[in-house]
Design a protein that fits this description.
about 180 residues, mainly alpha, elongated
Length: about 180
Amino acid sequence: MATDRDAVLEAAVGVLSRRPTAHLDEIARAAGISRATLHRTFPGREALIREVGALGLRKFAAALDTAAIESGSPEAALRRLVDAVVPDAALCAFLAGENQLFDDQEINDLWEVQDARVRALFLRGQQEGVFRVELSAGWLSEAFFDLVAGIGWAVQDGRLAPRDSAHSLAELFLGGALRSPEKK
C-alpha cells in the first residue's frame, strides 16, 4: 500500500504546529501509519520537518497566486489573500514556530521570495494612501504572517471557529493597518 506523502505531512502539521518536540511515534499515529512507514517515507525528523516547511511555502505561494495580490486595490488584495491563506493557517503556525527551518538556506530563500511579494503589497498600499506609512512594509508583512499563524493555533485549539477565522483575521489586521481618513 502506497503512503500518501501529503496526508502524512498534513498530519505532521497538526502535531508539530503545537508541539514542535513531538516524537515521531506521535506523528506516525496521527497519520495512521507505523513509525517504520514514516521512516521509509521520510528518512528522519529533519527530512520530515523540511518537507512540512516546503509544503507550507508551496501552499503560501499558491495562496499569493490565487489572491492575485499584485492587482486591484491593496485592501481588496489583502482580503483576497486572507481568504486564500486561512485554510492553511496551521502550516503558517508551523512555519512561524519551527526553529530548525531557519537554518535551511533553500527554505529561507523560498520564504524571502514570498515575503517580498507581501511587502510589495503593503508598500503599494502605503504609496496609494491605503495603509499606514509610519509602520514599515516589512513590519506589516511580519505582523500579517504572525496573525495568520495565530489564527492557525486558535482554530486548532478550538478558541476560534474555522468559519470565523478569515473575518477575524481581516478585521483585526486591517483595523490596525489601514490609514485613518483624517491622515490621508
